[in-house]
């Protein structure tokens, strides 16, 4: 059973998938940072100096000055600003992955189609014809 598991892990597709998963996780972190630190600050500034990561609705009815005060009070909240940032990250990541896959598919060599197999009857008839020619 251990030998069978080794064969499964060594297969090319499994290794490719593992590398892709690690690369994807690192890439997602990069995109999240891009959205939070590069894209959203100018958008927030254009909308009146709004920091989207600080937008929330406290569910306990209290008014908290900022996210730190909310978290210090351990109050339940709907953090829709953080969700908005994550949604933008997801859309950018999805678009970038779509473009990468589209580019990969263009670069990938087209698979050669195998010649259709000649039916057995035709093979036999060809052999008979060749024998009659002799």
CATH topology: Non-ribosomal Peptide Synthetase Peptidyl Carrier Protein, Chain A
Q: What is the CATH class name?
A: Mainly Alpha
Computed CA radius of gyration, to the nearest angstrom: 30 Å
Query: Unreliable runs, pLDDT <50, ≥5 residues?
Result: none
* CATH architecture label: Orthogonal Bundle
**Count of distinct strands:** 2
Give me the strand/helix succession: HHEHEHH
Fraction of residues in β-strands:
under 5%
Q: Helix tally? A: 5
Instruction: Write out the CATH superfamily name.
Output: Large-conductance mechanosensitive channel, MscL, domain 1
The N- and C-terminal alpha carbons lie at a distance of 58 Å
Main location: membrane
Subunit structure: Homopentamer.
Membrane topology: Multi-pass membrane protein
Transmembrane segments: 21-40, 83-101
Structure description:
The protein has 134 residues and is an all-alpha fold. It has a single domain, classed as Non-ribosomal Peptide Synthetase Peptidyl Carrier Protein, Chain A, CATH 1.10.1200. Helices cover 69% and strands 3% of the residues. The longest helix has 35 residues, at 12-46. It has five helices and two strands; from the N terminus they run ααβαβαα. Strands 1-2 form a two-stranded antiparallel ribbon. α2 (12-46) packs across α4. It has helices at residues 2-10, 12-46, 67-72, 80-107, 120-133; strands at residues 57-58, 77-78. The chain is elongated and about 100 Å long.
């Amino acid at each position: 059973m251990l030998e069978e598991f080794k064969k499964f892990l060594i297969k090319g597709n499994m290794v490719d998938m593992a590398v892709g998963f690690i690369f994807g996780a690192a890439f997602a972190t990069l995109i999240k940072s891009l959205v939070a630190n590069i894209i959203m600050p100018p958008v927030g500034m254009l909308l009146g100096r709004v920091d989207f990561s600080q937008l929330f609705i406290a569910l306990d009815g209290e008014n908290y000055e900022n996210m730190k005060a909310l978290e210090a009070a351990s109050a339940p909240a709907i953090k829709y600003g953080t969700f908005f940032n994550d949604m933008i990250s997801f859309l950018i990541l999805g678009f970038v992955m779509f473009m990468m896959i589209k580019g990969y598919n263009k670069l990938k060599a087209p698979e050669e189609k195998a010649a259709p197999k000649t039916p057995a009857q035709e093979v036999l008839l060809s052999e008979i014809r060749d024998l009659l020619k002799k």
